[in-house]
Design goal:
single chain; alpha+beta; 5 helices; about 50% helix
Length: about 130
């Protein structure tokens, strides 16, 4: 996952890589990569790099924790809302849409997921401090 984060983060110039830690900049970078068409829909691995960064943004906003989930299909990174059974799989959230030819609004997808995760976790009015 670190290599996947690095692939996305390194789209910033070395002097600007600190921006990766800022939530709005992280989301803006994801959208810029998609809008510029720097990834072909067949480049699943690169698209999944975007998914890891998208997951980092969700984790940053909601204080989610990365976990590994194993099922009959293998092991995948996922995000868990602490103290709940709410699990989200961001790895393929962007790639599935791009591979299907859909346009992706990173901000809209992010806002909808944040609201949905809060609702599922029973924290509708939860305020991060």
């Amino acid at each position: 996952m670190d290599a996947q984060r690095r692939w996305v983060r390194d789209h910033f110039t070395p002097e600007a890589r600190y921006k990766y830690e800022q939530l709005p900049e992280k989301l803006r970078l994801l959208q810029a990569i998609l809008d510029a068409g720097w990834i072909d829909p067949s480049e699943t691995n690169k698209l999944q790099c975007l998914g890891i960064t998208f997951g980092d943004a969700l984790a940053q906003e909601l204080k989610l924790e990365w976990v590994m989930v194993e099922d009959e299909h293998g092991r995948d990174p996922a995000l868990r809302y602490p103290g709940t059974t709410v699990i989200v799989f961001p790895l393929t959230m962007i790639s599935k849409r791009v591979e299907a030819g859909q346009s992706v609004s990173v901000t809209v997808m992010f806002e909808k997921l944040v609201a949905g995760i809060r609702q599922m976790a029973g924290q509708r009015d939860y305020q991060l401090q």
